[in-house]
Design brief:
With about 260 residues, this protein is of the alpha+beta class. The chain contains 7 helices and 13 strands.
Length: about 260
């Protein structure tokens, strides 16, 4: 994987968004591979597909590329809210790849894969509707909340200009596919509780620590009125997946 961007494509362009598009898209076509299988090439679908940008011809995995010269913050701008919500509920969301590059060095700084099966309803935020005077005033978009996705399931492919080996990326991807075995209706709970564990920033924690997230989890799952019981249940799921260890009554350890 070559971190140098084909900056010659940007000649004649002044718009930052256009420059980002013309330098990152050809780079992605030449350098991206499929982490879900052994295919070292993925095909661009930009010309005829609005839902995903790249497709693996070997395993049919779909990828959507998001590029920025600035570091990605807490949110990722995406398309129509209802379309994305339905895609998540039916397991049809694309894998997201975030590409952050340097204009000065004309290189890729960071490349991160967010697998489709870790995008849950809790990660989707509805955006404010457009002005009634807008041409598409009935359009309602969404954001992907990056901060709601545990770091455990965000897979680095390039970090600070250093390329991560394909074997390691694929190993990590295969390891977290265990989340696919959890029903879509329950997967959100598992990932939300794991995210809360990570927010504690502790190697050892207690149930009391986790109960502090009760209101937060209630806001994410308003139809559930037994939050503490659900927290205990999901900690057991995470323990069975090998992400946590149960040390003694009410005490857990991050693995």
């Amino acid at each position: 994987m070559n971190i140098h961007l084909p900056w010659h494509h940007a000649e004649g362009y002044k718009s930052n968004s256009q420059i980002a598009r013309v330098v990152t898209e050809p780079w992605a076509t030449d350098n991206l591979y499929c982490p879900a299988c052994t295919n070292n090439e993925i095909e661009s679908t930009k010309a005829n597909n609005k839902v995903f940008d790249y497709l693996c011809s070997q395993c049919d995995s779909r990828y959507q590329l998001k590029s920025s010269s600035k570091k990605f913050g807490r949110k990722l701008l995406d398309g129509a809210y209802e379309t994305m919500r339905k895609a998540v509920m039916h397991g049809d969301a694309p894998n997201f790849i975030t590409l952050q590059y340097s204009r000065e060095k004309q290189e890729v700084n960071n490349l991160v894969l967010i697998p489709d099966f870790v995008i849950t309803e809790s990660c989707i935020e509805i955006r404010s509707p457009l002005s009634k005077k807008a041409i598409r005033h009935d359009y309602v978009g969404c954001n992907i909340l990056l901060h709601a996705i545990p770091v455990d399931v965000r897979i680095p492919m390039i970090t600070d200009g250093k390329v991560i080996s394909r074997n390691l990326v694929r190993h990590v991807f295969k390891k977290i596919t265990r989340f696919k075995d959890i029903k879509v209706s329950q997967r959100g709970w598992t990932l939300d509780v794991l995210n809360c564990v990570r927010l504690l920033k502790k190697e050892n924690f207690s149930l009391a620590d986790m109960y502090r997230f009760e209101k937060h989890l209630q806001s994410q799952h308003p139809s559930n009125h037994h939050i503490q019981a659900k927290i205990r249940q999901q900690l057991q799921v995470l323990r069975d997946m090998g992400l946590l260890a149960f040390d003694s009554r009410g005490l857990y350890r991050v693995l």
